[in-house]
TrEMBL record:
<feature type="domain" description="Sulfotransferase">
    <location>
        <begin position="137"/>
        <end position="285"/>
    </location>
</feature>
<dbReference type="InterPro" id="IPR051135">
    <property type="entry name" value="Gal/GlcNAc/GalNAc_ST"/>
</dbReference>
<dbReference type="GO" id="GO:0006044">
    <property type="term" value="P:N-acetylglucosamine metabolic process"/>
</dbReference>
<dbReference type="InterPro" id="IPR027417">
    <property type="entry name" value="P-loop_NTPase"/>
</dbReference>
<dbReference type="GO" id="GO:0006790">
    <property type="term" value="P:sulfur compound metabolic process"/>
</dbReference>
<dbReference type="InterPro" id="IPR000863">
    <property type="entry name" value="Sulfotransferase_dom"/>
</dbReference>
<dbReference type="GO" id="GO:0001517">
    <property type="term" value="F:N-acetylglucosamine 6-O-sulfotransferase activity"/>
</dbReference>
<protein>
    <submittedName>
        <fullName>Carbohydrate sulfotransferase 3-like</fullName>
    </submittedName>
</protein>
<dbReference type="Pfam" id="PF00685">
    <property type="entry name" value="Sulfotransfer_1"/>
</dbReference>
């Protein structure tokens, strides 16, 4: 999605008290496609419910999928198990190998940890979390991450055309049907999810709205706020160190989790022109979405390129003036 969700995931994944899972929906998608079935959200919610209860009885496909991954992917997707199932070959055979991940080990390590965190971009409707929020054994907290649709689009296109760092192919009116549909859905669902998080009684005190840009501008402070919201006492020293090391300097890599920084968050403004930015603003409900989340429209080309002129405004408070987002 190109919204910085991998970075947010890392602040949990690097905490040894957290059983962290990266995009389990990818495994479900692969399994369903192999059967010729569609990726249905209720099926994914059943999977998430099982994971939050550390119950893998219906998730044999997930264990098999994790076991097939390269060691690098195991470290990323289920870090608490990496040291238990992966090992270095003898010096004569350099490299790392991993043994099969079995359900007993997965469930045992899952239950040992104080918290379970799942990073997922495959949830368009957070209203589907209501049963888990009501479940006293889960005590679910939802961190809803959004990004300026103009920046997200530029980042997404750059990722798809990574050889062309200037995104010459992204011109006003040249969006593919797939990109337009994606933007329409992203902007619409972002608004709907914010409304659920703000106004649904079940989500009160269980919903945290986070803009990618706020995390980029002050990652240490925002990480502490997220930790407070999710029930942690303090940010572990190793997590704070990782944040400091990975947000102070520019580092290469389109898919790197280290690209959230006070400079990188608005680099999209140097990569697209005014017409393209305005075209994105006019797609579907994106102008409305920008207003909801405090993203300011661009006035002209010089305004777009002037990085000293912020395109961020405070997020408008709920109508009842009770805020459940980043203060």
């Amino acid at each position: 999605m190109r919204t910085g969700s991998s970075f947010i995931g890392e602040i949990f994944g690097r905490n040894s008290d957290v059983f962290y899972l990266f995009e389990p929906g990818q495994s479900l998608l692969t399994e369903l496609h192999s059967q010729g079935a569609l990726f249905l959200r209720p099926i994914y919610m059943d999977m998430l419910s099982a994971l939050f209860h550390c119950n893998t009885s219906s998730l044999n496909f997930y264990m098999k999928c994790l076991s097939r991954h390269h060691p690098f992917e195991v470290r990323k997707k289920v870090p608490r198990l990496f040291d238990l199932v992966c090992y270095k070959w003898p010096a004569a055979r350099p490299g790392i190998a991993c043994r099969k991940i079995d359900a007993e080990l997965f469930e045992r390590k899952c239950r040992e940890k104080r918290h379970i965190a799942v990073k997922s971009i495959r949830i368009w409707d957070i209203g589907m979390f209501q049963p888990l929020i009501q479940d006293g054994n889960v005590k679910l907290k939802v961190v809803h991450l959004v990004r300026d649709p103009r920046g997200m689009t530029a980042s997404r296109v750059l990722a798809m055309n990574f050889v062309d760092s200037t995104i010459n192919k992204l011109e006003a009116g040249s969006f593919t049907d797939e990109m337009q549909l994606y933007l329409m859905e992203y902007c619409s669902y972002s608004i709907d999810n914010k409304e659920i998080g703000y106004y649904h009684p079940e989500y009160r005190n269980n919903y945290f709205l986070l803009r990618y840009e706020d995390m980029a501008l002050d990652p240490e402070r925002v990480t502490q706020l997220i930790y407070n919201f999710t029930g942690f006492d303090a940010v572990p020293e190793n997590v704070s160190k990782w944040i400091a090391e990975n947000t102070k300097a520019e580092k290469p890599g389109i898919y790197s989790t280290t690209r959230v920084s006070s400079m990188a968050y608005q680099s999209w403004r140097t990569k697209i022109d005014f017409k393209t930015a305005k075209a994105i603003e006019k797609i579907g409900r994106c102008a409305e979405m920008m207003e909801h989340f405090g993203y300011l429209p661009v006035r002209d080309e010089s305004h777009l390129k002037d990085l000293s002129s912020s395109l961020l405004a405070p997020i408008p408070p709920p109508h009842d003036s009770q805020r459940y987002h980043l203060e």
